[in-house]
Each structure stands twice: as C-alpha cells, then as structure tokens.
Amino acid sequence: MLLACASLVAGEPVTSSEKPAAWEIALAEFDKAGALVAQGKFDAADALLKECEAKLPSAYSRLAATHREILAKALSHSEGEAPYNRFGLLGQLCGALHAHAEAAELLIKATQGSDPKNYRRTLAFHLGQSGQTDKALAEYDAAIGSAAQDPVNGTRLKNSLRLYKERSSRSHEFAFMLPYIQGQFLSAGDDADWLGALREFKRLMPMAGTAAERAQGWNSVLMCLERLGDSDELSALGDRLLVELKADVNFCAAILAQRAKRAQESGKLDEALVHLRRILNEFSGSRMETTFRTSLISILRQQQKYEEAIGELRKLVEAESAQKNPAALLAQAHRKGHALLAISECYESMNDMARAFESALAANEFREGQGCSSCDRYSLAEKIRARIERLQNVPRH
C-alpha cells in the first residue's frame, strides 16, 4: 500500500484520492471516541472502541483495547468517591483520545479538594492543546513552583514553558517545531502519545526545507511507527524513503540498520545479513560504516561462515583513517589490532593454527592502539599477548 504520509517526502500535500494510512484511520476513530467520552456517551464510546479493537490492525487494536479498559475502570467508580478515581481516569482517557479541552476540564474536577501538583504538567499540556493559553501558562507557572524541590523536573518544566511561549511566533519554523513536538508528546515515558505525535510530525513535514530537516522529520515518523508496532506501515514507508532520500547515505543506512537489528533480535540472521550487506554495498561511506561491518562480521561468525568473516575483517584492517591526528591514528591501530585478533580466532575455529598464529603476530604490531578509553589499549595488548603465548605452543601444520 502506498502510504499517504510518504507522499510528503518532497513536501507536497496528500491528495484526497490516496487511501489513508492505517494510523490515520485509527487516529480518526479514536478522535470520534474521545468526543463521545467528552459528551458522556460512554456506551457509544465503548461500542466504537470495541469495533476498532475488532477491525483495526493489531498495533491499533491493542490501543483500542487499552482505551476500553481505562473507560471500564473509570466507570466502575462513582462520582461520590475520591475525585481522581473517576474524573482522573476519564480525563486520562480523553487526553489519550485527543479530546484536550474535556481532558483539562475533567482533570480540574479530579484535583478538587486534593493536591494537584502531580497533574499540573498534564493539565497545562491539555489546556495548551485546546487553545486555552492563559490558563495553560498559569498551570505551567504553578507546576514550576511545585517542583522547587525537584530541580530536574523543574528544569524540564521551565523548558516546556519556554517552548510553549515561543510556539505562537515560531510555529512556522521546522527547527523549532520538531523538538517542540518531541517534548510535548513524547517526553512522558510510558504515557508518551506516539499516535498524536505522528499526526503532528505529518503536519510538520511540508515545512522541512532541507535534506537534513527531511531526514530528521522522517526519523521521527519512523520512530513513532516502530514504537506503535505498526510493522507494515514502517516497512512500506521505509521502502519509499530509501528511494526518495537515497542521496542521504546516513539516513538510508540507519533505516536498514534498524531492520537488521529487528531481524537479528527475532533470530532471522540471514535477513539481518541482507540488510547489512545492502548498507555496505548501496550506502557506503556512512558515518557508522565500521559499526555496520562489525555487526555483519559478528553474525557471520555466529553462523560459522569464517571465510566470509575473514574477508570482511580484512577490509577493516585495510581501511585507512581520513584523519591523521594522533587520536585518529591510535583509534585506527585499535581497529586493526582487534580485526587481526578476530581473524586469528576465525582461523583457529577452522583448525588452521598456522594462520591463526600468523594473524596474532600481525595483531601485535597494533597492540598500542587505543579505543574510547585508555583501558582499551591495555585490554587489547593483553589479549594479543595471551593469544600469542597460547598459540606458540600449539602444533602448526
């Protein structure tokens, strides 16, 4: 399926003739459910969410089920109980379903007669999203005051307030809006609104004026799809972007690296190799090329494909750093030493002890190589020393 959101790569709007993406359908249905909850039409909201649970793809079916559970839990409490039991849960649900004005109203009711400090940040967000600027600013100020003993949270709240104040004058700036959306929708940990953020990122994409901004925006969209578990949409959009943004080798390599990671975590090692080889063949020169090659080698060794692994390791040995400063040369020696050590281990696994010993001796030339810390140098030197000492007493034929 051609994704509706994918047509925004070059900044053009989605046309009405295109079929909506699965997440767009889910978002529209959840918005309707939020309106029903806000109107107190709980049976109708539950019926709609039940239909979503049955018909939507699994990523969004699970969300619908979660929303139904919150609704049922909220309605199990009477209005005469502690306010947060009912109004708080309904406010939480309205917020998750993007009925922001009603979420704010319910959260205000929930905190009546109790300490509202734990809900001020959420309340400020929903007031802001519903256009109640003055009330939102007041809640941000109150939240900052309540966080006087929590400097980390206080700093986060001050940053949120600063961004909120600047939003009206900078809402047309991609460089401002991208971190603003990330901070407003995705900074709540387990309560992050990935679906709501996805809508905001889609709206933002036409503002992306450079290749770097388009890559940043689409990275955020892909992240949302991955966190939502929408594998079909993630794959289809990724395929489209690999074509549209093929000149950006770092961006394309990152898409394929994520696919390789998911495949490897699922035990699909051959599939992971396909993605990693594609990175190295089609998108060579990326910033993380050495890391991707190292991942490829690790899988080849895991599959006991030692000849192929040795071939890739030799490429690490032969690669020369573009920079010639002392730190870069030490890092280069570190990489070469580790690669030769790994070659020695591969030959030993193939029972070729002569070449295993020869490779260990070659690694010894780079024993002073240093990685990210000085301890790496001593670790590498010790590994090489111990390997030579062990192999020199092993028969070599």
Describe this structure in words.
The chain is mostly helical. Among the domains are: 184-245, no CATH class; 246-303; 325-397, no CATH class. The protein contains 19 helices and no strands. Helix 17 (326-349) packs parallel to helix 19. The radius of gyration is 27 Å and the shape is elongated. Residues 1-17 and 371-375 have low confidence and may be disordered.
Provide a short characterization of the protein structure.
By secondary structure, the protein is an all-alpha fold. The protein is built from 19 helices and no strands.
From the structure above, extract its key features:
397 residues, mainly alpha, 72% helix
What is the 3D shape?
elongated
**Sheet with most strands:** none
Mean pLDDT: 87
Radius of gyration: 27 Å
Number of strands: 0
Helix content: over 70%
H/E series: HHHHHHHHHHHHHHHHHHH
Uncertain segments of ≥5 residues (pLDDT<50)? 1-17, 371-375
What fraction of the residues are assigned to beta strands by DSSP?
under 5%
Overall structural class, as computed from helix and strand content, comes to: mainly alpha
* Count of helix runs: 19
* Span of the ends, CA to CA: 59 Å
